[in-house]
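Protein record

Derive tokens from sequence
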Amino acid sequence: MQPTAQLDERISKCEEILSHNPESMIFAALSDAYRKKGDLAKAFHACTRGLKLHLDYGPGHLVMAKINMERGMYSEAEKELVLAVQADGRTRATELLLAQILIKKDQIKDAKKILEKLKTTDPENEMVGELLKAIKQKADFRKIHGTDKPGYDVMTVQERWRIEKVVDLKDGVHYLKSLPGVLGALVVGGDGLVLESRLNPNFKKEQIGAIATCITQCVKDGVCEIRFGEYEQVLIETEDLEFWIMKFNNQAFVLGCAPEANLGALKIRVGELLEHLSRNLE
């Protein structure tokens, strides 16, 4: 991973070029720099703007494929990769990325076929070896536990549109409560007051707000004392409930989830929502 200072410098130079020439193809380099920095929202929007002007620009579609994959939008990532290949042809890099996307989509046989072909021409490639090892571990796990259920979920572009329509904390709480397995969603202020909530009838919002505030304060004090940095989120698992607290500015989003809830899928959606709200409420 490139140092942040280098990425910031590249972003600054690309943005300067685009300010003088909005139609420059440098948008792909800008988007990729944002992606590598971890700012997927800015990467996505910069790449979207650029591709509207350059529909057949292969490197732009390749960067968008990487962005979509990291955002959990695996089907959209594959579509962008197809467009990149149509523009510039297949390469080892596009085949490797395709294998990664197929693994995320749980199309293991197709991914393994691609990786084994890549390995015959480059047997020392570490990434290829790691992906083949991951596939074997996944197969072994399913064999031992007798399950074919994937451990993740895919985020569709329709779900992204739902998130983009969220304009405030109230909308955010309504969106979270609509997700499978979520029994209650709240926004709690630093003083413990519940600012917004959408709950099943058996939940008491004041009680949950007080519990979340108490837990958050204990965690803050603890990680500060042992110098682990600031807390980002807390997950407490009980027999009948998954209690999840996520820091958001000076507040916290709190979810009460059923034990069978797919936390991997929820994490993708919650992350996207908080990222969107951070931009929208600036």
Summary: The first strand starts at residue 182 and ends at 188. Strands lie at 182-188, 194-199, 233-237, 242-248, 251-257. The domain at 157-280 is CATH 3.30.450.30 (Beta-Lactamase). The chain has a mean pLDDT of 87.
